[in-house]
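Comment thread on ticket #2218

A.B. wrote:
> Attaching the input chain for the structure job we discussed in standup.
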Amino acid sequence: MSSKIHRAALALLLGLLALPSTQAQPATSDPADASRVFPYEAPIRDMTAGGVARLPIPAAVLAEAAPNLADVRIHDANGEELPYLIDSDARPARGEPTPRELDATILNTSRRIEGAESQAPIYIERFELSPPRVESELADGSWSRRRWALVFATPRDRFVAQVVVTWAAMERQMPLAEGSIYRFPSPERSGLTLPLEFAPEQPEEDARVVVEIRGGDGYLEPTLRFRSHTSQDSPPTLTIPLEESLRTSENGKTTIHLIRPQGIVPDRLQISTTTANFHRDVRVLDVAQGQAPSTIGHGLAYRLREVRDAEELSIPLLRASGQTLTVEIEDEDSPPLDGLHFSVEVTQPVLVFTGVERAMLRFGGGRVRAPRYDLMGIRSSLTDGSGAERARVRLGEIRPNPSFDAGPALAFALTAGRPVALRDFAYRAKIRVTGASEGLSRVDLSPEVLAGANDALHDLRVVDADGRQRPYVLGAEESQTLELRVPSAEVQGENSVYELTLPASPLRVSRLTLDTDASFLARRLRVTGTLENGRVATLMNTFLARPPDTHEPLVVELNTARVRDLRLEFDDGGDAPIELSRVSLEVVGSPLFLVAPDGDYTLYFGDPGLQAPVYELSRARALVLSLPAATTELGALERNPAHVPPAWYEGADGQAWLVWSVLILALLVLVVLTLRVVRSEPEEEPDDPRTTETTKTTTSSTDPASDPAQTKGETEGEHDKHDGHTESDG
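C.D. wrote:
> Ran it. Output below, let me know if you need it in another format.
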């Protein structure tokens, strides 16, 4: 009995072990999960749902993230992406001691001249200073290391000198600083502070700070002071290059329009140039649509290549809120700066977003592009400093992301789909994909493709060499700028008309930019366009004004429409027509994100009645749009040799067939009615000659007044005949 029980128990145990285990095996990750491209994650703590949260980014995250935080995302509990913007946390901490200055105690001074016999003597001043002795304590009780700088003051208004600062103690010397101090008037440019590498909190008894000044402009006889400030760790800084949209140089001024990335609130503007020596007045304007430009930065940028560290290329900025930063550089009679580029800095970046429960920060890997969010609701809350302090949250423990997948993010979608009937498409263009490491490439559609495809871009198909289609996702609508031929004015009464020809048509237009050399402008403008159906529509009726001595381009926002051409009509009144120097047009289209390996493909389009394709890839849209796309080469538009124009009845919808049915039925009814009318009329009998003669005689006898001459003749004839008969009878 016992053996039977043991055998039964053993069989049951083996059976249980043979069952598939669902707990021991990791769950298969969803290939459409956008979070699986980030190797690290950390929960966000102390957050209130619905409120505006500020999350300072620690150095551990910045060490693994991209330099511009392109691969940083915030996800909610369902994996949905939360939009954020990047603000600065460079505000002074509460309770932090303000910078302090101490008079330097001079222990010894010496001066000498080298090369006195030559024409360029060198004046050397040497000072031995007692090292500073300051101890400070932060509000939380922790000791902090002080950072020191040596500050020079002198009545000389123009000089350049080299300075070497060393630490001397117990027969050993250590370098503290080496650099230049200088001052130039008109305009004033100066550098009188030299940061020191270190300063021991408890220096030795015989320690000295030795300062040696060498210059060719005489003795400076400076006053020396030590400046200190408390700093725990230098806050991390992001440097983000800016894209330039327009540059003009005229009337002694260079104006550069820079696109400010969405979500970036910069602290400083950094200028980069290859010009060796210059000093220029620089003004930075914040330009928001529908608002007057406002100055958010102003300063002097300069460089003296012959003087070490004698340059200033940073302009502090107030908070920016517009889409464009306009930089104005006063060149006066000097040529514009060479190799000019711009970037912005954000100190101690903070992510600002709307709080939710169980939010997760995921980052690293460098496999996604920088996000683009619409953050107007969050941006307005940044001006409330007290609210920002209350909304501060913290980051939990950083850990590996369990759903991270190191393989190509879109490997699941690299298979070809169904074949495509090429006969339906009127046009085609070649595509070459290279470097698609994640399986994704971006195709920017040319104006010719946008014009040849239908309005919604539903008839786009990407086909491989085997005739099978490859899946794609259309991105959000974007604008591309087209330079148009500048037309001449056609005077019509008190109006001047400009006919604009598009490089391809029809195109969906959104904005018009006009440049003119007119120093003053105040006129009404009406913009019309011819739609696809031939109807003329008014796209904008506005009043354009530009103050005197300004040269900003005139921007006209248009009602977005798909048009074949544009017509500008200015109300000149008694003024002469405007001479346009440049006309640019923004057209709207969507980029195509193609999922396919490297190779050659063909884009087919030009079937107005075709519906949009349905791909499983649409489930992974968030993942696709977050990945960096490879570069592509889109060939020129050409006719599809396999295209067969459809018959007249193909492509007709139900409404068209209904109209044709009504017309045919009406025609049939008309034919039947006509036949019935014809059959209802009496038939005419053939003419009888005798009847005709009798009828004539009767008619003549009956109506003698119908022809007086004929009646008279007939009467005389009858009379003669009567007389003849009488004579014969007689």
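A.B. wrote:
> Thanks. Noting for the ticket: DSSP finds nine helices and 46 strands in the chain.
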